[in-house]
Specification:
The complex is a heterodimer of chains A (392) and B (296). With 392 residues, chain A is mostly helical. Chain A contains 16 helices and two strands. A two-stranded antiparallel sheet of chain A has the order 1-2. Chain B is an all-alpha fold and 296 residues long. In chain B, 73% of the residues lie in helices and 0% in strands. Chain B has 16 helices and no strands. Chain B has helices at 6-18, 28-54, 58-63, 74-82, 85-116, 122-131, 137-148, 162-166, 173-184, 188-196, 201-212, 214-230, 233-238, 247-258, 262-282, 284-295. Chain B starts with 5 loop residues before the first helix and ends with a helix. Classes of the chains: A mainly alpha (392), B mainly alpha (296). At the A-B interface, helix 1, helix 5, helix 6, helix 7 and helix 10 of A face helix 1, helix 2, helix 5, helix 6 and helix 7 of B.
């Protein structure tokens, strides 16, 4: 559309223009008030709250000491954040066409990794261990469930897009988990993955001759359950060789209970992704596939050379959306959390909720929520840059 | 090339469905059907498990049979009565209806203004509203709770009241965005004609634009319905009594009270899910297509 900027001859008089403005403002008024009051104002207020002692009622001003307490060392936190954000620069250098940039990228990568490690170590010793560990668990949850969701849904969508019967039927079935109320499906999963020997998940394991597991009740990492002996041996070897590092706790990855939640996430969102991917597939010109057919390409080749590259904007969108969702996930974790799994399901949202609801420490919870927000923003920013860069 | 914008998406979709080729069997299809069937089976297992368990006796749930010997339909009656589901269901219907109405009013008006009325700061305000999509609920729930309780603005506490459960959800950035995109493609000539006939913006919106926009409005209704039915944390915080407690929180309360009576829990879960499923099956085609076109 050609832009003829304001050059239209019969512009209404100035007076009616003002009336037009008024109508515009009146029309957006209800939406703006509600979104401002319950969407924006709370951020500022959470920031304000976090600077006070605030248990149910507002107390004395304490400045940034909550942030100090959570992070242990604010400088450590900032160093960590800087290390995180410099990945964007690393990526830009690495993909840049100029000479010697790759060397710079590697150097910068080393710097940002050491920034991450130094910052993290400064925080973990003195900071709020529960909250910091919860950030790592949140990342486990997001990074393990999203790629699987995307891969599965891409394959399913590609298969569904073939000229087959019952496409609508399959699409309807795959979409079902997404529209199911989370509390209800989480309760069903609680029952399927309970620690009882007769639980459905354990019966399925039984068919393959595997001993029943404790699933949602299991605080131990999956790796420890699988390779317990080897890990103990490795740790004794580490001790004997004089290192004070032990492969334990969060270094061993997610607990079995968190893996159940990852399965739940995959179960819920794969169908949603399928539907969006199908819409994306509809936008790929048929002729490309026909041309590939003439060249004698098989299904797998067409998938990798046409479908995957042309769907990359959709993949990018779904990945970003999935991450934002996963980093904020709450209901399913809250409903499936079992006391005997201890803190192994406590992602950041749950820790914040507990600080607020159980310990009634309103301002500490507010400070934690602000930190989570910054963390989410940083992760999304990095993804945005890195994935967008790849797509071009 | 692959960056199709919103309007072309819908256009091409209709094209695609209209030129659908006739079915032709190929051997590879057997493999495709097999993979899809496995996927579909995994998708529905939890539902089958839930249905089957909800019809068992307590003994059968403990012995873990796959299917109940004789379906115990009375479980539903028992869960319904013990869990106060009639009250929760009614509450949720009221809450969802009010929320949908609120979202429709606020987003149709705002979507129209952002699309067709020019006023200073329009695009800036629109971008700011869109930014709310990035804000995690974890950050907002604490201040919002204080606000509702009257700690920030000294009004009477809204706890355990209908406004607390509906008003905060009555405007949604995605709905405004969706409707704006659609309204923008309505030909300007229609507005010129309406203006010559002496219609103002509101009249034009209600008489011409809204009837033309049934599809995106239905999408907004369905998405709001799902969100509202699904809401959990906020109602959990603002309903300390059963008066306005919605279905999701009611089910959670029931879980904590019923303890290990799995058959009743599953009956409760079925009761919570059924209304959503009914609406989904009734509007299935529009539902998935609406979501696909709105969010891709």
């Amino acid at each position: 559309m050609a832009v003829t900027s304001g050059a239209t001859p019969q512009q209404p008089a100035k007076r009616s223009f003002n009336r037009e403005w008024l109508i515009g403002y009146l029309f957006i008024f209800p939406a703006v008030v509600i979104i401002f009051l319950f969407g924006f104002f709370p951020i500022g207020y959470a920031l304000y709250m976090s600077l006070f002692r605030w248990r149910v009622r507002q107390g004395s001003f304490i400045g940034f000491s909550h942030y100090q307490d959570v992070l242990g060392s604010v400088w450590g936190g900032l160093l960590f954040l800087a290390g995180l954000l410099s990945f964007i620069l690393v990526h830009r250098l690495w993909t840049s066409s100029r000479k010697n940039c790759r060397v710079g990228a590697v150097a910068l990568l080393t710097a940002s990794l050491s920034g991450l490690i130094i910052g993290w170590n400064a925080m973990i010793g003195t900071g709020d261990g529960d909250f910091l560990a919860s950030l790592v668990r949140t990342l486990f949850y997001a990074f393990l469930s999203i790629p699987v969701q995307i891969a599965l849904s891409l394959i399913i969508a590609y298969l569904l897009y073939h000229n087959i019967r019952g496409r609508e039927f399959f699409r309807m079935i795959f979409f079902l988990p997404y529209i199911t109320p989370v509390v209800a499906s989480a309760i069903v999963f609680r029952s399927i993955f309970s620690q009882r020997e007769e639980a459905l998940a354990n019966q399925v394991l039984g068919w393959f001759g595997i001993a029943p597991q404790r699933w949602l009740f299991e605080p131990k990492p999956v790796l420890e359950l699988l390779f317990g002996g080897q890990i103990t041996a490795l740790n004794t070897w580490l001790t004997n060789s004089g290192t004070n590092f032990q492969l334990e706790g969060l270094w061993l990855g997610p607990s079995l209970s968190l893996v159940v939640l990852i399965i739940y996430g995959i179960w819920t969102f794969t169908g949603y992704n399928v539907v969006i991917f199908l819409a994306g597939l509809g936008n790929i010109p048929r002729q490309l596939y026909e041309a590939a057919d003439l060249d004698g390409a098989n299904g797998v080749q067409k998938f990798w050379t046409i479908t995957v590259p042309l769907l990359s904007p959709v993949t990018f969108y779904l990945t970003l959306l999935g991450f934002i969702g996963a980093l904020q996930a709450f209901t399913q974790l809250y409903v499936m959390r079992q006391p005997s799994a201890r803190d192994s399901l406590d992602t950041s949202s749950l820790v914040i909720f507990d600080t607020f609801y159980q310990s009634n420490n309103f301002s500490l919870a507010a400070a934690q929520s602000i930190l989570l927000f910054i963390f989410i923003l940083a992760i999304t920013l990095i993804q945005n840059r890195v994935l967008k860069g790849q797509e071009e | 090339m692959a960056r199709a914008s919103l309007p072309t998406t819908t256009q091409r979709q209709t094209q695609r469905t209209s030129v659908r080729e006739p079915y032709e069997f190929k051997w590879i299809h057997l493999l495709i059907y097999f993979v899809l069937a496995v996927g579909a089976f995994v998708s529905v297992i939890p539902f089958l498990y839930m249905l089957s368990t909800s019809l068992m006796t307590l003994g059968e749930t403990i012995n873990r049979q796959a299917l109940p010997k004789t379906p115990q339909w009375a479980n539903y009656l028992e869960a319904w009565r013990e869990g106060q589901f009639s009250r929760y269901l009614l509450n949720t219907v009221i809450i969802t209806t009010l929320t949908i109405l609120g979202v429709l009013v606020s987003s149709v008006l705002a979507g129209y203004a952002f699309a067709n009325i020019s006023f200073p700061g329009r695009d800036t305000i629109f971008m700011i509203l869109l930014a709310t999509l990035m804000i995690p609920g974890t950050v907002t729930f604490i201040p919002n709770l204080l606000m509702i309780r009257g700690d920030i603005i000294p009004w009477e506490s809204w706890l355990n009241s209908l406004p607390a459960l509906t008003v905060p959800f009555m405007a949604k950035a995605f709905a405004i965005f969706l409707l704006r995109q659609f309204f923008r493609n309505i030909p300007k000539e229609l507005w010129d004609a309406a203006r010559i006939d002496g219609a103002g913006h509101l009249r034009f919106l209600l008489v011409v634009v809204v009837p033309l926009s049934k599809a995106p409005i239905l999408t907004v209704i369905l998405l709001t319905f799902i969100d509202s039915w699904n809401e959990f944390v906020w109602p959990l915080l603002v309903t300390t009594t059963a008066t306005w407690r919605p279905l999701g929180v009611g089910l959670w309360t029931f879980v904590n009270e019923a303890g290990p009576q799995t058959h009743l829990l599953m009956a409760g879960a079925v009761i919570t899910i059924i209304p959503v499923l009914v609406i989904y099956f009734l509007t299935q085609k529009h539902f998935t297509e609406g979501i696909a076109s709105s969010r891709s």
